[in-house]
Amino acid sequence: MKIAHIAPPWIAIPPKNYGGTETFLYDLIEEQVARGHDVTLLAPGDAQTSAKLVSFFPQALLDSGLSWLAHLKAYYHIHKAIDYVKRRHFDILHTNLSSAADMYVFPLAAKLRVPKVTTLHSCFPFDRVQSWTGDADPYYLEWLSTAPMVAISESARVQVPYDLNFVGVVYHGLPMNIFKPTVERLENFLVWLGRITPEKGTHHAINAAKAADVPLVLAGIVDPHMPEAVRYFEEMIKPQIDNRQVKYIGPVNRQQKIDLLSHARGFLNPIEWEEPFGMVMIEAMSVGCPVISFARGAAPEIIVHGKTGFLVHDVGEMIRFIPRIDELARKAVRAHVEQNFSVGVMTRNYTQVYKRVIVASLSESSRSKAAIKSPSVSTPSSSLMTGFRTIEAAQDLSPFARDAMAATEAGPLP
After folding, report:
1. What is the DSSP string of 200-226?
2. How many helices (H) and strands (E) in the chain?
């Protein structure tokens, strides 16, 4: 299958420490290449990938010193990427909606003949800058409303305030050959890991660990481009770091994260927002580390209460469940991720989505051609003519796309 991926241009692939969308893209593309697909990644030149890499500037924007507010280069990247795809043959174009600049994809790609699908990673509204929110999102519904969209959880799908064209829900997945425990003997500490922002609940994790009298290790990034995050860290988090009860080790890369979670008794996730997924929860559980999370966002879809962790509603409940975290079997915690959140499961599910989108696009193309060619002329059976035009259109498809079409004609896709 010939697949084109357009990456957001802000963070390197794979990310040095934080970057949920970029981690998702890296793992999905590596697995697609391993399965024999012909994959092209359109991303800044510092991306590391087994796919064919096409770049329009050498470095991810944040690493080159740009602010999230500087959209000109982001627009250039998306425009050039769409133009590249337009001039070549692909079976499917996969894009991502993570931040405001990604919205440019929809008007730019609206007339592409290539079947396309977008993974929605973040929450609406996208017309926002820190605490300011604009009203531009509804204007983009002209293109958004019909664009095939994948949600990363059922929670994320139902939170969308617009009637979008969701074609599936696909959970994120991890390469389980990389995410595996590095130690058997645990140490007496808990972990909080992620972007240090109020909605991630770092302060709640500190309060819970202190009340339970268990040391807490904080790991993650304070985004210097977000003044509110910097202020939150300086005023709410830094004063509580004493390197005994609360220790902050800064950002961690993938291997450091695996090692940290492998040693920890548990992971605390006291989120204060409806998080669309929460990659760090499956990262923790993949090495057997149980998770205690507020029951918000996708957490109830990811955690099996009493088996892979505990779902709680406030800091008081989190404190009460911390002593019970050692009751959970770490092998069972990891097995849950293997069965439901591996990169293999994710890639198979995206392949099924691609098939559905390709077939739907082909059918729509056939209907459009039929309307243009014979708007008012009597013809043989419309279904027969549509079949002729579908066969005609299929001549330009790759073998994979033709197989997808044939499978759908034979019966519904799984």
Report:
1. GTHHHHHHHHHHHT--EEEEEE--TT-
2. 15, 15
pLDDT one-digit tens code per residue, 250-302: 999 999 999 999 999 999 999 999 999 999 999 999 999 999 999 999 999 99
Cα distance between residue 337 and residue 345, in whole Å: 10
Q: What angle do CA 224, 104, 25 make, to 5 degrees?
A: 65
Closest Cα partner for 395 from 367, 347, 364, 362? 362
C-alpha distances in Å from residue 365, one per residue of 84, 103, 245, 355: 21, 24, 62, 15
pLDDT at 367 over 90: no
Neighbours of 193 (CB within 10 A): 26
Burial degree of 342 (CB within 10 A; 0-12, 13-18, 19+): buried
Bridge partners of 191, per DSSP, are 217, 267
42 falls in which pLDDT band (50, 70, 90)? very high
Lay out the sheet containing 309-312: strands in order across. Answer: 246-248, 216-221, 190-195, 266-269, 291-294, 309-312
Q: Where are the alpha helices (DSSP H) in 303-398?
A: 315-321, 330-340, 343-373, 382-394
The 3-state DSSP class for residue 63 equals coil
To the nearest 10°, report the CA torsion of 302, 250, 27, 293: 0
The predicted-structure confidence for 101-155, as pLDDT tens digits, reads as follows 999 999 999 999 999 999 999 999 999 987 899 999 999 999 999 999 999 999 9
In whole angstroms, give the CA distance from residue 101 to residue 108: 12
Q: How far apart are CA 91 and CA 42, in angstroms?
A: 15
Residues 143, 136: Cα–Cα separation, whole Å = 13
Please give the torsion angle defined by the CA atoms of residues 29, 34, 39 and 41, in that order, rounded to the nearest 10 degrees: 40
Phi, psi of 291 (to 5 degrees): -120, 130
CA neighbours closer than 13 Å in the CB half-sphere of residue 329: 5
Count of CA atoms in the C-beta half-sphere (13 A) of 313: 0
Question: What gap in Å lies between CA 280 and CA 195, rounded to an integer?
Answer: 11
CA 307 to chain CA mean position, Å: 25
Cα gap 252→219, rounded to integer Å: 7
